[in-house]
Amino acid sequence: MLEEAGIRPSPARALTLKALAMAARPLSAQEIEERLETVDRSSISRTLAVFTDSHLVHAISDGSGSMKYEICNDSHTEGRHNDEHAHFHCRRCGKTLCLSGISVPVPELPEGYQAENATFVISGLCPGCSRLEKS
Q: Which of 45, 94, 100, 101 has the smallest C-beta neighbourhood within 10 Å, fewest atoms?
């Protein structure tokens, strides 16, 4: 995957990519660091910047103050990914989850504007936290 994205492989990059690939949800840099005891924070940050610039991953601003990252699972065209989908951020447990079946609405922009990225985050309670609050 690294070579396909035009990224020179390194141990830190391979481990970071593996951590993201094995995750069931988008992860913050801190969560990646906790999973990778042998890779320091600055290496992870630099790696995530390279991955984002190469459109191997996309960053999600979920309102928590911490960017989350996930591998782009769709094709890339014209230097950007086509993996635009909604995300859900649970206000109780803090997890951000992909809602792959819900696409991001594309608004009609005024003339002269060119969209490059769109984020659609729904916040509330995930099913587990919703059950906990009811009991």
A: 101
Question: What pLDDT digit, counting tens, does each position of 2-28 carry?
Answer: 998 899 999 999 999 999 999 989 999
Is-contact 22 31, C-beta < 8 A? no
Residue found by looking up tokens 């979920």 in the block: 62
Tell me the whole-structure pTM to 2 decimals: 0.76
Tell me if 68 sits within 8 A of 32, measured CB to CB: no
- Distance, in Å, from the CA atom of 28 to the CA atom of 8, rounded to the nearest integer, reads 23
Residue 104: CA count within 13 A, CB half-sphere: 19
Query: Residue 110 carries which side chain, given as an amino acid letter?
Result: P
Any residues with CB less than 8 A from the CB of 101 and at least 6 apart, and which? Answer: 85
Q: What distance in Å separates the CA atoms of residue 109 and residue 39, rounded to the nearest whole number?
A: 42
Tokens of 26: 């988008």
- Contacts of residue 115, Cβ cutoff 8 Å, sequence gap at least 6: 106, 109
